[in-house]
Design brief:
This protein has 335 residues and is an alpha/beta fold. It has a single domain, classed as Alpha-Beta Barrel (TIM Barrel), CATH 3.20.20. It has helices at 3-8, 24-31, 42-49, 58-62, 65-71, 75-91, 113-131, 147-159, 183-191, 207-214, 233-238, 247-252, 264-269, 288-299, 303-316, 321-334, and strands at residues 11-17, 94-101, 134-142, 165-171, 197-200, 219-222, 242-245, 273-276. A four-stranded parallel beta sheet has the order 1-2-3-4, sandwiched between helices. Strand 6, helix 11 (233-238) and strand 7 form a beta-alpha-beta unit.
């Protein structure tokens, strides 16, 4: 597979975090009017934003978000950040992207939750108008927060369901807050008919993936740990669950430490559906093109495989059947 061709082919991305994907030069533009001082040296700034290839653990990876979040506390900043992601998506011909973010992380300067969501959606809309990339957003509840606060985010997602918020997710500390901690909250999500994708199996517990499915998740963010519990493979297959794989990120956060342990082929061989994603473009210093090229180098995937992963993403996307049909046709024509 040739990088230039992979970059030009149409792609779909379902797992991309807003705060982990802002270009350093955009962050400068956002920080300056707020009086936030960033290192003048570009290399120094990049080192603060990009996680080491060899992180010690997930926490070292997550430290990279602190500086970015301090800049994303105004409507103007949030709008610019969302627009920036769409401009990046356009550069590599991503035709549809779902951008996820946790509104509660953007309230430090007093912004209301609805204003935060409105600002992000405005940025996505501007990006769509300028670059033609269709996008929607997913709201994340942070696992360490109070259940009542997470439920506010669920209601917020419902409130904006016709305006571009298409699903709900739980992100953050999976180890200490496994899926069943949120049984009632996720019951509320299902009751409100909000599509659900959950981060699960990013730390070493395959049972979390099974529990997430039992609690209503239609897609699983990462899902890597389920490789060690093959007894759950049929649950994933029978429920047509899509695993949102993020290869670069999974190695950085030590979800796996060597290629032999990465379950990409295991999932494919078991008939489990996967799609390919960046997770955090800036923190992982990656693009969707990079992710596909890695899979080509590691496993020798073909353009036909790439097309299939993108069809899988369309099928798992939280959009109407009509929109799916158009994307499927576009992929088929262009591959």
């Amino acid at each position: 597979m040739k990088r230039e061709h992979v970059k030009k082919l149409p792609k779909i991305e379902l797992h991309c975090h807003l705060d982990g994907s802002i270009r350093p030069e955009t962050l400068r533009k956002i920080a300056e009017p707020q009086g936030i001082v960033l290192p003048a040296d570009d290399v120094q700034l990049k080192n603060l934003l990009v996680a080491p290839i060899d992180c010690q653990n997930l926490n070292q990876y997550l430290e990279r978000f602190d500086l970015v979040l301090s800049c994303l506390q105004t409507e103007t900043a949030l709008k610019a950040a969302a627009f920036d992601i769409i401009s990046q998506a356009a550069e590599e011909n991503i035709r549809y992207i779902e951008v996820r973010f946790a509104p509660s992380l953007h309230t430090q300067k007093g912004l209301s939750l609805p204003k935060i969501v409105t600002a992000v959606l405005a940025g996505l809309t501007c990006g769509q108008e300028k670059f033609g990339v269709k996008s929607n957003a997913l709201l994340c509840g942070m696992r360490h927060e109070e259940i009542s606060d997470i439920e506010k985010i669920v209601h917020l997602a419902k409130e904006f369901q016709t305006a571009g918020i298409v699903g709900f997710d739980l992100a953050g500390n999976e180890l200490d807050f496994p899926p069943y901690t949120f049984e009632e909250t996720l019951g509320l999500v299902n009751q409100l008919n909000m599509p659900l994708t959950l981060h699960a199996g990013e730390c070493g517990c395959g049972k979390n993936v099974a529990d997430a499915i039992h609690l209503g998740a239609k897609r699983i963010g990462h899902g890597i740990a389920v490789k060690d519990t093959p007894e759950y493979f049929s649950l994933l297959k029978d429920n047509n669950i899509l695993i949102e794989m993020c290869p670069t990120s999974n190695f950085q956060t030590k979800t796996v430490t060597k290629l032999a342990d990465y379950p990409f082929k295991t999932f494919l061989d078991a008939g489990i559906k996967v799609c390919i994603n960046t997770d955090n473009r800036t923190v992982s210093n990656t693009s969707l093109t990079d992710e596909y090229m890695k899979l080509y180098e590691w496993y020798g995937i073909t353009y036909a495989d790439m097309e299939q992963f993108n069809h899988n993403a369309v099928n798992g996307a939280f959009i109407s059947e009509k929109e799916k049909q158009l994307l499927h046709e576009y992929l088929t024509t262009n591959y």
